[in-house]
Structures are given as structure tokens and as C-alpha cells.
Amino acid sequence: MSKFNTTGTRPATSSPIVGERSPGGVTHEGGDGYARDTKSELFLLAVTNMVGENTFYETGDKRDTRFADLVRETALADPEWTARFLRWLRTEANMRTAAIVGAAEYVHARLAGDPSPVAPIANRAVVDSVLQRADEPGELLAYWTSLYGKKIPKPVKRGIADAAVRLFTEKSFLKWDSAARAFRFADVLGLAHPDPKDPVQDALFKHIVDVRFNPGREIPAELEVLGARADLMAWDKEKRRDLFSRPDTARSALRRAGMTWESLAGWLQGPMDARAWEAVIPSMGYMALLRNLRNFDEAGVSDEVAEGVAARLADPEQVANSRQFPMRFLSAYRAAPSLRWSYTLEKAIAESLANVPRLAGRTLILVDTSGSMNAGFSKDGTLMRWDAAAIFGIALGARCETADVVSFSNGYYGGTGSKAFDVPRGESLLCGLDRWKNGGYFIGAGTDTVGAIQRHLRPGHHDRVVILTDEQHSSGNVDQTVPQDTALYTWNLAGYERGHSTSGRGNRHTFGGLTDAAFTMVPLLEAGRNADWPF
């Protein structure tokens, strides 16, 4: 009898998240835990880490310290990999604060441990690469000085100078410069000394420094946006709403003056009515539109204008360029009181999940809704880790040829601790998420991953198991519970130190992040091709 040359033979594959072959410890809940190598641990932590925020099992301080330690270690062991990773973390994964912290720790570690002549150039490039918004040079300076003092190394200054030339414009100055910040634009210019790219930027840089210390300075003629803003600010406060009696003039005036919706609200010194919103909406960015749907409805914005907003929000190119997490569309859907946004948000969330693959065969999808997954990504508490797990789980279930989608926890509150969720063909994802929320599929309590596998996996029937989880299971061994001839894919949504399975080899693979990009690895691996880092 042949032992190897059988119809079930599959090529050996590898993926970048590598875990030890056998458990070397336990998870936070006491189940068998598998440590990962340094790069894998850093990656999973970074793509799920909202810096400074507590998670269920780790304080924000502990989590941030672990992140900084891992960056410093990889910066010395493999500086090229770490540089690529940090650039990707900011530009593609859209993790703003983690990338800024990572760049600072990268430079600090290399200044202490890498004397090579190319190091300063590389350090400068890393700093520049993670600064993608005009307030971020000041953010990096604030982080650096709070930890390492007022002496700013040359690579940091030069990287910040490069970013300032890219990012400092009249509009960004009006939007982001504020007396509430420790490092204002003038401070950044004074420390970094960037060389302006043209005469207009030269005039802007000089004016930024001048006006910081001499607020009454005249605005140079070259700075047309600042001049237009000053003209608007000179209007009599009692007559400012008269501007909106001429809609075309109002839109043009607000655009010339670089008025955001926040600055317009301040200029009016009162509530934003429909006319004000309709004047500023054409100038608003994608995220600003998404977060203000409730305000548009409450102000009574016309259906004609709302249709224009809807077209922008649902446009595939704008969805891709916005780099919004799928959970943001769910948050907007829950916040918007009007049904006129529902189909728009359905199309937008579908576009944001374009990478979810169509998997052949039968897939068991286990969605962890234990108490530790009921943890927010940020202090506003609007988005939970189990929201992300449900979004990805239901979306994958809808794309699979055949899928069994299950919410699981444990039996602490009675019952089996798991609930099967039907995914009808053609159902709106947002409607499915409403059913999930209203039907009691967010279970709570502990994480009995082994029990869920034993109850719902049918060996020989399911081709693969996909588990969306923080991996902090309570007992047993997840890896050994899934038969070795059944693929196990784990999507980690928290980035804790130990996971519930080995990873990176055979048919055991772990992914991470808050976007759909991780899903692209599954078809590669099942086609017998190795998966690599996404950068």
C-alpha cells in the first residue's frame, strides 16, 4: 500500500507567521500556548495594536512596552525587513500611531547598536516613510522627547524635514496647527530646518514661524488660502450665515479658504444647518463624510446632496484609497438614523472586503465571541474585536462554496456555548450582522475553542477550519484537536504573545490584522504556493 503517493497528497507550504512546533507554555486562560518568533509576534501585535489602549489581558503600558522591545530587536537583527514593515504598517495597514512609535524605536535602537555609514540614511528614510499626515511630525517629536529628552538626533530631524516638505501646505497648516499641541508647525520647522520645494512653500514656512511669535503679521500675497481664510474671519459674526444664501459662492469661498467642516462650525459659532453642510460637503474627505451621516440627516441635507455623498462613499476607487477598516462602515451604519445610507454602506463594506476569497469545498468558520473579544479597539468603545470577527466570519461564509458559521464561547451561561449561524445566499452583509447582534450570537464568557471544534468539526466532511479569535483558549490543545489532514487557519485579532496552534508550516497557518488583506494567503497556500509578508 502506498503511504505517500495518494490522492490526498498536497505540497508542503509555508507562511510568515511562525510558531513553535509544540506548546512551550500556556495562553492567558491556561490552554496550550505556542510562542512565535520575534517577527511573527511583532507583526501580529502591530496590526492589532491601538497604542496606549488596554486590552482584556494586557494593560496599554505593558502592550506598548512589548511592542517597543520587539521593534528594537528586529531593527538590529534585520533592519531592512523592519524598515519595509514600518512603511507598510503606516501606508497599507493604516496603523498610524504604532508606525510612528515603531519608527522612533527603530532609530533609537540603531543609533545605539549600528555604527555602519548607511545607517543614518536608512534611519532618515524610515522616519520619513511613516509620516503621512501633517500633524505626525509633531507627534513623533512629542513621543521622542517624552522618552529620550530634548536632544533630537540628525536622522530624526532630517526624516521629519523630508516629511514636512511633503506635508506642510496652507490647508494642512490651517487644519492641524493648534495651540493645544506641544509641538506646533513652527516648532517642527525650527527643529528640522526643511528646505522648501518652491517659493510658495518658502513663504509659507517663513510665515508659520513669524505668526507663531508675532500673531499680527501680514499674510504674504503668495499664500492665497491663508488670505482667503483671513477674509472670511473678518466677516461680521451676525452676517456669516448670509453666505449660504448663494450656494455656488459659498462652496467656492469655503474651498478657497481651506475650510473643513470643523472649522466651518467654529466660524459660524452655532449649529450647522442644511445649507452649511451642503456648502462644505463637496470639500469634505472620505472619512469626514463617513463619520457625519447622522449629522447630515439631523440637519435635513437634501436628497440630491445625499445622493452625491452616497456615490462617493460607494465608489470602489474611493473606498480603496480611503483604507478604512471594514468595521468603520459597520460603525457608520449603526450610527446613521436614515435608511437612505444603508445600500451605500452595504456597497462600501463589500468593496472593503474584496479580498475575501471564494473557497471550494466545505469550510467550518468559528467566530470567537468570548468575553475577551468584547474589547474595544479604542476608547470610544464603538468597535469591538468580536465585531471584526463577526464581519470577517460572515463575509467568508457568504463567499465559500459551502460553509458552517458558528459563534462560540463556552457553556458558562448555559447551553452548549456555541450557536450555528445561517448565511443565506444573497443576504446583505449588514443585515446579516444585524441578525447576529440581535439574535444573541455575541455570547460572552470563556473561550472553549477545543469544545467548539469537537462539537462542530466533522472529519472527512470539512476541508478546512477557519478560527477568528484572540487565541486565548481555556483548556486542551487546539492544534491536536483538528485532524492533521484538515487545514487549520487562525485569524488573530489581538496579538497576544502566545497562540493556540503551531503555525507557518504544513497546513497550520496564522494571519492577523483588521483588514481583509490576510485572506489573500488562503488561496495561495491551498494552491501549494508559499505565502510571504505583505510588504
UniProtKB/TrEMBL annotation:
Keywords assigned by UniProt, alphabetized: Cytoplasm, Metal-binding, Ribonucleoprotein, RNA-binding
Membrane spanning residue stretches: none
Record's subcellular location: Cytoplasm
GO cellular component: cytoplasm; ribonucleoprotein complex
Residue ranges, compositional bias (Polar residues): 1-16
Stretches the record annotates as Disordered: 1-33
Family: Belongs to the Ro 60 kDa family.
Record PANTHER family: 60 KDA RIBONUCLEOPROTEIN SSA/RO, RNA-BINDING PROTEIN RO60
This protein's name: TROVE domain-containing protein
Higher taxonomy: Bacteria, Bacillati, Actinomycetota, Actinomycetes, Pseudonocardiales
